[in-house]
Design brief:
alpha+beta, four-stranded antiparallel beta sheet, 21% helix, globular
């Protein structure tokens, strides 16, 4: 998905990104909510997704606009073109 598609889809529905990197697996969801955006990010060792106590990352972020979401993801090294519906 291009950045423009990311913007268009996110204006009305949740987008997700699943990844595997260096023995870790993660899921990032971004969804519109009451004119704002909520990002959830869960990460754990491969195969440990059902044990939340062992998550290496478990966060929720709230953003007032889409540009802030994209900036945050870029600062974390995440390419928004990798998200899917």
């Amino acid at each position: 998905m291009t950045e423009q598609q990311f913007r268009e889809f996110l204006s009305r529905r949740t987008v997700s990104y699943l990844y595997k990197d260096a023995g870790l697996e993660g899921l990032i969801n971004v969804c519109p909510s009451q004119g704002k955006f909520v990002l959830t990010w869960e990460e754990c060792k491969a195969g440990d997704q059902y044990n939340e106590q062992n998550y290496t990352r478990d966060e929720v972020q709230h953003f007032f606009d889409l540009d802030a979401v994209i900036t945050y993801l870029r600062n974390c090294g995440i390419d928004v073109t990798q998200f899917e519906l």
